[in-house]
C-alpha cells in the first residue's frame, strides 16, 4: 500500500463537522448551509442553490412537512443561516458552485451529501467515536462516506482555484442519493447541460487504500416504491368475515414479488425492504404497506421487474378484496463510464501520489442516481465516468462501523484535481 | 347390539354383483342396466330412465367422451343391453320406478348408485375380497355403501309390491352423488314435483349395526369447481422470462384459498383437493389446475366462501399474468329433515326388528346432493327426511377397507318399507 | 326501550374522569390511583393492590420500562399519589376491595379498567367530545366501556355498604383485559379462592339499552403471541445472496397461519393482527415480527390452532434460514356461566327498573380473560356467571365512536347490587 | 446464407427413421439398436454398449420397470434385436464405437440420442408431417434435433473410416440428455479417460443455416429433483382437522422456491416444472410432488440454489406436518470450451463448405450434461469444446414445430470430420 497523503487540517475539520451532523435525504440543511458558507468564502464565479438547481416536478421521496420542519429546526439550532434555510428549507438542498476561467471545456464533478438512518457505533475501536466526532444526530450516520465526498469536492475546487485552469468547472453537491431521488431533479434542471466531461466518485466500495478504479460500471437500474394496501378492519374473534385483510394481501404480494421470474438477459433484483400492517393482534388488519424496490442490470431489465411487480401488487390486492396504491419513490437508470474518459483517469491515477494500484474497470453491483447526471451529459454529447477511490474501511458500507481513512480523502482530491487539470489542458 | 336380520340371498347376490362392478359418477352403465333388468322383472307401473329423468342443462361434471366410451364398453362386455346403453350412454344414468296403487300420498325414496376412484383392499380380512366379490374395476370401489343403498331401494320396492300399499311410490336410483352432480338434474327434471313425503338414506356414517338415525341434518352446502390457469411455457434455463408461470399462479391460489377468513356465522370449509400443472422440470409451466370445493353450514356460508374463492383465483392469475377459467362442477345446498316426518321414522324404527337404538337427530358433517331433491319437495309443500341406517363398518367411508354388514341391508329394507307403509296408512 | 334510570352526578363525574384518562393495559396508573382514592373514602374492610393481587410469574405482556415510565409520569402529572405509584408502578395495576359483614357467602364482582390504542372521534356527534370529556391521552380511548364497568363496580359497592348485606363482598378492578393478560395473575394470586359466587359483566355487546343478558357463554379461548424472525441483512442490490430474509419468512408464515385447517369440532380463529419488518427498501430485512392470536370455541380448539401455528412459524423460519422466537402474550380459556347463578340473575333482572328485556343466554363471540377468574372459582366449587348490560352504543366496540348511555350504568349498578343482595339473602 | 450441402440419401433415411421413432430418456431401445446395426456394418475396432459404458451407481432418473418394459416391447415390435434388447433393456441405452488407427491422439465425439415428451405438429407446413416421417410414438418427438446429432455422428465416423486418419476415434451415442442423466454414468464409466480432444455439438440453438459457433460456453449447471410430500388424508367436509395437507405444503414450497434470493455472483434459475397432488376435491390431499430444478451459471451458484431449495422444501413440510422426501434426478456441472480447441474448430469451420459465418463464442443459456464428459476429459489433461451447427429451424427447440434443414446435417458432418482430421494431423 502506498504511504498515503495526510489530509490538511482544514479539510479534516470540515469532514468531521459534516460527520457529526448526518442528515437524511432532502433534509441536508445543516450540511448544505455549511458548504454554502465554505463556498461563499472562495473566489468562485457563481453559486446556485434552492429551487434553481432542481426540476421541481422530478423530486420524489421528499419527507413530509413535519420531518422537514424538524430537521430545519435542528439545523437552525446548530447555527445554520435563516436566509439559506428560507431558500432550501422545503427540501431544496444541495448546491452548485461554478468557476469560469475563460476558454476551455466545461467539466463537472458531482459529490453527494446525505446520510443514512443508521445508529453509529460508539466503541473505542470506532475512530469517529474515539476521536470525538461521532454522529450527534442519534439514529443517523454518515455510513457511506458522503462526508468524505463533500470534502473531496471542496478540496478539488480549491486545487482548481489555485491552478492555472482554463475552462469552466462546476461542482455539484447532490442531495438525496441514498433514496435515489436527488439525481433526477438536478439532471432535469439543466445545470449540467453544457458539460463536456462529467465525473462522479465514490470512496471505499471494498477497494483498499491506495487503489483507484478508473471507471466503475454495471450500475443497477433501480426503482423504489411504496405500495399501500387498504382493506377493512373487523374484530378478529367476533366478526372475522367482516374484514378485508390487508396483511394477507401484503404477505401474498411479498411471497410473489420475490418469485418474479429470473431473466436470461441479465441480473435482476427485488426487495420488500420494509413492510408493516395492522394495529393489534385481535383486529383484522385494515392497512399494510411494502416499501420495496426492483433493479436490473439494464434499465430494460428493471422495467421488466417493475411490470411484474405491478401485476403482483394488483393481484394480491384483488385476492383479499383490498385496494392497493403504488407510489413511485426514487429511481435511477443504469449507465456506463466512457472509455476515453476512463483512460484519462487511469493515466492520471498512475502518477498520483498515494495510488499504488489502478483497476481499470469494476462493477458497482448496486445503484446510484449519479447515472441520471451521467446520462444527461452523455445524451448531449459529453462524456462521463464514475471513479472509485479506495480506502481501508473497517466496517462495510451502510453498517454502524463504517469509516474512511482520512488520508485517502487527500488522495481523492489530488486524483480528481489532476484529472480536471489534464482534461482542461488537453480537452 | 340387536341380533340383526339376515339378508335374503336374492338381495345379497345383487349387492355383491353391484359391488363387483363399481362405476364412477355418470358412468354407472352396468349398474343402471342391472337395476333396469331387475325392475323390468317386477310389476311396476312405470319405468323412466335416460334423458327423461335429467334436466340436461343442470348436468355438471360429466366425464369426457373418451371416459364415457370406455365405461360404456366395459358395461357392454359385462353384458349390458345395447338398447339400454343407447338410451343412457351419454351419461344419462340412473332410473326411476313408479308404483301407482290408486288413492293415497305420493312417497319417494332416493338411493344413490355411484362408486369412488379408490382401490379396494384385497387382504383376507376384507370381506368382499375374502368372499370373492371384490371390485373387478381396479382402481374403483363401492367405498361408501351405494351398492347397499341400491339394494335397499329394490328391497323396499318389493315389500311395497307385496303389501296392500295405497298411493304412489317412486323409487329413484340417482347417479353421481359422489361428485354432487346427479341430484340437481333429477330435481329439475320435475319427476319428484308431486311428492308428498321424500326419503333418502345412508348406511353407516359411524353409527353401528342396530342403530338408526331418524333425521340427519346439518348437511354442508357445497360447491365444487375446477380452476384452470393458462400461462405461457418457456425454457426454464434459457428464457425463464418468456414464461407466464401457471404453477406459480396455482400455488398462490392454494395458499390464499385456505386463508379465506373464518366466518362467525358458522362452519365453513375449503379444499384444493386435486391439483397439478406443468410438463417437465425444465419447462416453465404453461398450465395448472385446482379441483377444489368450498362448503358452508348454510348455503349462504357456502356462497360467502365462493365469493372469496373467485377473487383469490382471479387475483392469483393476475399476479402471474395468466388467465384462469373457473368451471363449476357439482354443488348442493344445505337442507334439513322435517320434524313431522322424522317423528314417523323414529316411531317406526323403534318397532323394527334389528334396531335397538334410535338416535333422533345427528349431523352429517359432510355434503350430499339429496338436498336438491329434499329442497325441491319441500319448496312444493312436501316434507323430506334423511335417514341413517347403522352398520359396523370396518374401515371408514371412502377408505379401501370400507364394508357393510349385509344383515343391516335387511334392517334398512324393513325400516324404510315400514315408514312408507305407515305414511300411506296415515298420510 | 325502558325509561332508563339517571346516573347520579357522582358516578357520572367518575366515569367521565376515567374516560378522559384512558390508559393501556398494565399502565392504568391514573385509573388505579383514582379508584384507590375512591375506595379509601369508603367504609371497606380491606384494600389490596400492587404485587399482593398478582401472581408475578403469571403476568404477561407487560410493556417495557420506558412505556411504564412514560405512563407513570403522565399519571403523576395528572395528580396520582407518589405512594400509590411506588406500589403499582412496575405494572401492578388494579385493586381489590373487601367488605366483610359476618356470616354469609363470599361474592365477588370483577370489573376491568384498561383502555385501547384507538384515537377517539372528536366530532360534535360524539358525546364525549361534545360534552368535554373526550380522551386526553391522544391515541388512546375507552372504546370498550371499561370506564362504565369501573363505575358500576363502585356503584355496586356503595349499594352494598348502604344495605344490610351479610357475608363477604370482593370487588376486583382488573387491569389488562384488552390484552387478555390481567385475569390470569389475579386468579393465580388466590384472592378469589374463597369465592362462592363470582360475577363479571360487560356493557353493550350490541344489546340495546333496557336489555340484559343473564348469562353470557361461548367465550372463545384465545392465545396471543409475538413471533420474531431473525435473519441477516444484506445490501439488496449488491449482495442479495448474503441476506436471510426475515420478511420472506414472516410473509410465508402469514400465508400459512391463515391456512390452518378448519376444525369440524367447532369454530376457530387466527389473526396476524400486527406485522412488520425491515428497515429500508434497499436492505434485505434482518428482522420481522407477527403479533397475532389464535382462538377456539373450546380451549382444546384453541390448543389445536396453537399447535399448528407453532409449526407454521417454525417451518417458515426454516425456509428462509431465519430463527424464530415465539413469545406468549396473553391468553384465556373458554368458560361457561353456571345455570343456577344465571337463574338468579334472570330473576333479579326481571324486577330491575330500566330493564325491559331479559335474554337468558347469548354468546360472546370474542374472548375475555374473566374466564380465568370464572374457572378458578368454578374449580374450587363456586359458581360463576358473566352478565351483559345493554346500552345503545352509537359506534361498535373498539371503534372511535363507541360510547355508552350513562343511564345504563345506573341500570347496571341496580342489577348487580340486586343480584348480590339476593345471593346473600338466599345463598 | 451459404448454399448448403445436400445430405446423402443414406443419412437422410437414417435421420428420418430415428425421427419416426422418438424415445424418451433411458428408453432409446429402438434407436440404440438401429445405431448398433449401423455400427456393426462398419469397419470399426470396438463396439461397446449396455452396462459396460455406464457407471451403474451414477445412473439417475431411470423410468420404472413398467415404462422400460413398454418401450422395450415397442422397440421389439419395431424390429429391434432380442440380443441387443437383453443387454440394454434395463435402461442401459447408448453405444460407444471405437476406431483405432495406430499412432495419434485420442479424439472423442459425443452425440445424444433421446427425444422429448412433446406431441409433434401434424400440419402440412411441418416438414416431417408433410414428408411422412412424423413421430410414430404419439406424444413423443425429436424436438431438439438429437436425430440429426446421431446422424452427424455416424457421418463423421464414415468420413474418418474413409480417411487416412491416424489415432483413436471414439464415437459416443449418449442417452438421456434431456433429463441430464446420461452424461454422468458414461463419464464415470471411464470410457473417455484416455481422450485428448473431446467434441460435443448441438444443431440449431437459434443460429441460422450457414452459421457455426466454434465454442459454446456458459452452460448452466443444473440439478433436477423430485420432492414428494406425504401427509394424511381426511374428508374435507367432515374432518378437515384430521388431514395433514400435502398440497398446502407443496404450494408453500413452490411460492418460496421461486423466492430464493438472486445472487450477485451470477445468474441462477429455479423451476417447479411439474407439480401435482391429491385425489379428489373432497379429500384433504395426502400426497403431492414437485418435479423441479435449480441452475446456476457456475456449479457453485447451482449449489447455492440447491442449499436454499432444500431448506424451503423442508420448512414447507414442517409447516403442514408433512414429511418430504427429496430425490435427486439428473444434474450437470457448468463447463467451458478450451480456447486452443476452439481455435482449431474456428479455423476448420472457415474453410468448410456451407459455412458462411463463424461465431467464435456464444453462450448456451441452458444446461447440457455433455459438461460431465467435458470435465472428465479436462480434469485428466485433455481439452474439450462444444460446437454449434446452425440450422434454420421453423419452431423453437422443445416445441411441436421444431425441425432441422437436412442439408445442415451434411455441413455438421463435414465440419466435425474436418476438425478430427486436423487434430489428428496436427495433434
Task: Describe what you observe in this structure.
The structure is a homotetramer of 427-residue chains. Chain A is α/β, with parallel strands linked by helices and 427 residues long. Helix content of chain A is 34%, strand content 23%. The first copy, chain A, contains twelve helices and 14 strands. An eight-stranded mixed β-sheet of chain A has the order 1-2-4-3-5-14-6-13, with helices on both faces. Chain A has a four-stranded antiparallel β-sheet with strand order 9-11-7-12. In chain A, α7 runs parallel beside α11. The model of chain A has no long low-confidence stretch (mean pLDDT 95). Chains B and D meet through β7, α8, β9, β10 and β11 of B and β7, α8, β9, β10 and β11 of D. β9 (268-278) of chain A pairs antiparallel with β9 of chain C, so a sheet runs across the interface.
Amino acid at each position: 500500500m502506498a504511504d498515503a497523503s495526510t489530509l490538511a487540517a482544514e479539510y479534516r475539520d470540515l469532514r468531521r463537522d459534516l460527520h457529526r451532523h448526518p442528515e437524511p435525504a432532502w433534509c441536508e440543511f445543516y450540511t448544505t448551509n455549511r458548504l454554502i458558507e465554505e463556498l461563499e468564502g472562495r473566489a468562485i464565479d457563481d453559486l446556485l442553490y434552492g429551487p434553481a438547481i432542481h426540476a421541481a416536478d422530478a423530486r420524489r421521496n421528499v419527507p413530509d412537512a413535519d420531518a422537514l420542519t424538524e430537521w430545519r429546526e435542528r439545523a437552525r439550532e446548530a447555527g445554520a443561516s435563516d436566509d439559506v434555510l428560507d431558500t432550501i428549507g422545503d427540501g431544496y438542498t444541495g448546491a452548485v458552485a461554478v468557476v469560469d476561467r475563460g476558454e476551455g471545456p466545461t467539466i463537472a464533478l458531482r459529490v453527494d451529501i446525505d446520510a443514512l438512518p443508521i445508529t453509529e457505533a460508539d466503541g473505542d475501536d470506532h475512530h469517529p467515536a474515539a476521536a470525538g466526532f461521532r454522529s450527534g444526530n442519534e439514529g443517523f450516520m454518515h455510513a457511506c462516506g458522503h462526508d468524505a465526498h463533500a470534502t473531496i469536492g471542496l478540496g478539488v475546487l480549491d486545487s482548481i482555484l489555485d491552478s492555472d485552469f482554463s475552462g469552466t468547472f462546476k461542482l455539484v453537491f447532490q442531495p438525496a442519493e441514498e433514496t435515489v431521488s436527488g439525481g433526477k431533479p438536478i439532471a432535469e434542471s439543466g445545470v449540467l447541460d453544457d458539460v463536456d466531461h462529467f465525473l462522479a466518485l465514490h470512496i471505499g466500495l471494498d477497494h483498499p487504500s491506495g487503489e483507484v478504479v478508473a471507471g466503475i460500471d454495471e450500475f443497477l437500474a433501480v426503482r423504489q416504491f411504496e405500495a399501500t394496501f387498504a382493506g377493512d378492519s373487523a374484530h378478529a374473534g367476533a366478526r372475522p368475515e367482516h374484514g378485508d385483510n390487508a396483511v394477507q394481501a401484503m404477505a401474498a404480494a411479498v411471497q410473489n414479488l420475490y418469485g418474479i421470474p429470473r431473466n436470461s438477459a441479465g441480473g435482476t433484483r427485488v426487495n420488500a425492504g420494509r413492510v408493516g400492517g395492522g394495529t393489534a393482534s385481535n383486529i383484522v388488519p385494515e392497512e399494510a404497506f411494502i416499501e420495496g424496490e426492483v433493479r436490473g442490470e439494464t434499465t430494460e431489465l428493471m422495467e421488466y421487474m417493475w411490470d411484474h411487480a405491478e401485476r403482483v401488487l394488483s393481484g394480491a390486492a384483488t385476492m383479499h378484496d383490498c385496494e392497493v396504491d403504488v407510489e413511485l419513490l426514487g429511481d435511477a437508470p443504469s449507465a456506463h463510464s466512457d472509455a476515453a474518459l476512463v483512460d484519462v483517469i487511469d493515466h492520471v491515477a498512475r502518477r498520483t501520489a498515494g495510488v499504488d494500484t489502478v483497476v481499470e474497470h469494476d462493477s458497482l453491483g448496486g445503484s446510484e442516481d449519479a447515472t441520471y447526471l451521467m446520462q444527461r451529459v452523455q445524451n448531449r454529447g459529453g462524456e462521463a465516468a464514475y471513479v472509485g477511490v479506495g480506502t481501508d474501511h473497517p466496517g462495510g458500507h451502510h453498517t454502524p462501523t463504517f469509516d474512511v481513512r482520512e488520508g485517502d480523502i487527500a488522495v481523492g482530491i489530488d486524483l480528481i484535481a489532476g484529472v480536471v487539470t489534464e482534461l482542461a489542458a488537453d480537452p
